[in-house]
Amino acid sequence: MGVGGRFWDLLKPYARAEGPDFLRDKRVAVDLSFWIIQHDAAIRARRPFARSPHLRTTFFRTIALFSKMGAYPVFVVDGEPSPLKSQAMIERFYRCSGLEHAELPKNEPGTPVKRRNQHFAKCVSDCVELLELLGMPILRACGEAEALCAQLNYEGHVDACITADSDAFLFGAKCVIKCYRSNSSEPYECYNVSDVEAGLGLKRKQLVAIALLVGNDHDLHGVPGFGVDTAVRFVQLFNEDEILDRLHEVGQGVIPVVTGSIGSATHLDEPNVDDALSKARSPHCSHCGHPGSKKAHSKSSCEHCINNGFENCIVKPAGFKCLCSSCEKDRKSKEQRKHENWLIKVCKKIAAEENFPNTEIIAMYLRNNNRHCHDSPSLRWDYPNVGCLVDFLVYNMHWDPSYIRQRMLPMLSTIYLREMASTKTRNLLLCDQYEFHSIQRVKIRYGHPYYLVKWKRTNNSNVCINYKTQNEHSEFEHESLGASEPIDLSDEPDAPQILIDDGCWFLLTDENIELVKAAFPDEVDRFSQEKKLKESPSKHRKSSLKSCKNKTGAGDHSPTSACVQLSITEFYRTTKVAFQAKPSEDPGQNSQNGEPVKEGRKISAASSDHNTLKSAKRRLMF
């Protein structure tokens, strides 16, 4: 949830649309609880008997985030909730269940903190075990996971946070990704604090003040009668350094001094009105609306009307506003009184709240020690433990081992290419079975280009892996779930393709272009040259073929030469017999009537038919 009162709608205009390459080679902190809750409820709503949706979501999303987006994820787990958080969780449960708030138990001092749901804790424990087998770094927060994600982002350990809790900005996050879909061409929302500060003029402490007014995860109510718009209008009256002090003053019943106000700071019970506001406005003519009385204008013409080219006083038009100094001052005074009346009304609402503002909530948002150890966090990405991971998923998900290895291939190929780009060591891929072979083509996937890379199976490999197709696995999963339809595979990455050519086994995977360039620059150059040669015009191809022919030698006229463009008649001989006239017949005479045929007549007839066809086409087209 985070900050209440549609806080995300306030930040929506300042969101940036980013694509999958935005997170490439960047470290990103992931709120693990957000991932589990987001898709667990959605999958169970459609498939009540789905097996371990939290493990499925974590497995596929981690592989997509690591391989497709090229990010280095750091997963953060929630710690023990604070007493305020526990009370808010109980209150939220009562609210969703339709129970009366009078039955809500009070959280007295010394009461043990309510632990999180045991079923949810078991889901988190399973996901942590899965991520450890995948080699991902995992950190445990003292309290809220989004607080530690924001702290890592604030201290520069990660470049962004993935969470749906809007209070990550209050904890100090600089870049927050609210939600993203791995298999989608649509960009995801990315919020930068710099854009929010430039658009709304609000900084961290001012956002904390808004959360105190509209409600948050630790205080669901906030101040009654306060929405996001009212809170933003009130907070914008003060700068970041003084906003929290002003909230303390208002909580004690003191109206704060606002820059540009007419009055001075007073207590709510003793309002102070400036004498300048009580002065009456100078008299104006009811006929023309200008300064002066109607009686005076009847005796002598109005100066303003005469200056406008009229001899007598004219009737004022509808919506007329006098622009004299007295009227301008009066309008400003009315606006100021209206604003001060609104400020007094708002301050009375704040002062009516008991123990406002809550200093414990303020300290919770502004502290920067959300992890157990105060040293720099150890962020290390290890190689996946494939064997133990297969056993874990076979036991928990009832998946086939070959299917698990197939879905892990994008992650293993990404690790392999990164190692090749950094060390240039010729290691094999996927349990020493496949090695890099070539680049087949450029593939556009979800609006972004990738290289379709061929991985060749080595000859000395004796292990045979029976990869199932996606349809076969869907049937297998369908039987294991006992559902009437296969579950949604929107987060599941594309399965590698299998290719058999001349007895050799190949796997085709989609890889990032820049990563392949860094790992195999020679192969990329060769592929680029071949692509240019295919896309070049026919003249350039002919010239290259001639040069290739000259290199092979002028005496080599073999029709099977690889550099010579063969004619189609070399492969398919014509069977049409040429027409030969009989010696007894004259080709210039007709065989039926013996009259000679005039060539000029034939040409003229053909040309007339051709002209007729052209004219008919013109009539049809125009």
UniProtKB/TrEMBL annotation:
Keyword terms, alphabetized: DNA damage, DNA repair, Endonuclease, Hydrolase, Magnesium, Metal-binding, Nuclease, Nucleus
Cellular localisation: Nucleus
Cofactor(s) needed by this chain: Mg(2+)
Residue ranges of domain XPG N-terminal in the record: 1-99
Every XPG-I domain range: 132-202
Region (Disordered): 528-560, 580-622
Keyword Ion transport: no
Residue spans of biased composition, Polar residues class: 605-614
GO molecular function terms listed in the Swiss-Prot or TrEMBL record: 5'-flap endonuclease activity; metal ion binding
SMART domains: XPGI (SM00484), XPGN (SM00485)
Predominant location category: nucleus
Organism superkingdom: Eukaryota
Record's GO cellular component terms: nucleus
Biased composition (Basic and acidic residues): 528-538
Coiled-coil regions, chain positions: none
Gene3D superfamilies: 5' to 3' exonuclease, C-terminal subdomain (1.10.150.20), 5'-nuclease (3.40.50.1010)
GO biological process, one term: DNA repair
InterPro entries in the record: 5-3_exonuclease_C_sf, PIN-like_dom_sf, XPG-I_dom, XPG/Rad2, XPG_DNA_repair_N
Pfam family, one: XPG_N
Similarity comment text for this entry: Belongs to the XPG/RAD2 endonuclease family. GEN subfamily.
PANTHER family: FI23547P1, FLAP ENDONUCLEASE FAMILY MEMBER
Name of the protein this chain belongs to: Flap endonuclease GEN-like 1
Species in which this protein is naturally found: Dioscorea zingiberensis
